């Protein structure tokens, strides 16, 4: 299993059945491959409730998600105008948004739409989802391509919203928001507490259950 699939599978485990879920571009789109299409309702900003998968055997080349990827269509799927889709988001009718990020900080703020000095296409639905979704889960590699941490004390790129995210899932760790900070609740793959600490700039606590499980 690839690192991206490992992250996506763990994100799928965090979802409640029969919830309405919006999947962002990148790793989040893979989450659909780990869900029972009859028990989850996947929403996309361009106007479809009932996305099933991005797996090759399930897709319809004539139907795309907000990231312009061909996707599958569930039985009973509904189509609507993009304005209505954003109305669902802004009206708090989306239970969970799963988003990728460039950076996330210890206050839970996300930067995922612009890199200073580089051309941008636009923010898309990220701002709306961060404000309107009832729960936000971040899926990302723990470090950037140059090895620098992506979980920071404070974002250095323009933030997308001041709303704090609820969960961060990386290739090394799973963090949950507890009060005003984040708690490390799980290690991913072969990661260790020491490796997570070394590759994380943000402050966080370690759950007692995880400490016991690794013998600390």
Automatic annotation (TrEMBL):
Stored InterPro entries: 3-oxoacid_CoA-transf_B (IPR012791), CoA_trans_fam_I (IPR004165), NagB/RpiA_transferase-like (IPR037171)
Gene3D superfamilies per the UniProt record, alphabetical: Glutaconate Coenzyme A-transferase (3.40.1080.10)
Enzyme category, top tier: transferase
Annotated keywords: Transferase
EC numbers, comma separated: 2.8.3.5
Molecular functions (GO terms): succinyl-CoA:3-oxo-acid CoA-transferase activity
Family under the similarity heading: Belongs to the 3-oxoacid CoA-transferase subunit B family.
Protein's name in the database: 3-oxoacid CoA-transferase
Organism: Salinicoccus halitifaciens
């Amino acid at each position: 299993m690839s690192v991206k699939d490992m992250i996506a599978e763990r994100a799928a485990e965090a979802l409640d059945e029969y919830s309405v879920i919006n999947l962002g571009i990148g790793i989040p789109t893979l989450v659909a491959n780990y869900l029972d299409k009859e028990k989850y309702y996947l929403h996309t900003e361009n106007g479809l409730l009932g996305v099933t998968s991005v797996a090759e055997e399930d897709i319809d080349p004539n139907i795309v998600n907000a990231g312009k990827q061909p996707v599958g269509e569930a039985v009973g799927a509904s189509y609507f105008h993009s304005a209505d889709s954003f109305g669902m988001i802004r009206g708090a009718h989306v239970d969970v948004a799963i988003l990728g990020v460039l950076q996330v900080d210890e206050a839970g703020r996300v930067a995922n739409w612009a890199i200073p000095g580089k051309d941008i296409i636009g923010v898309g639905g990220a701002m709306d989802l961060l404000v309107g979704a009832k729960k936000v889960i971040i899926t990302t590699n723990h470090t950037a391509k140059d090895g620098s941490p992506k979980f920071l004390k404070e974002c250095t790129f323009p933030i997308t919203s001041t709303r704090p995210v609820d969960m961060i899932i990386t290739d090394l760790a799973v963090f949950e928001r507890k009060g005003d900070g984040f708690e490390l609740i799980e290690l991913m793959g072969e990661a260790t507490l020491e490796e997570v600490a070394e590759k994380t700039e943000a402050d966080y606590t370690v759950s007692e259950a995880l400490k016991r499980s690794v013998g600390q």
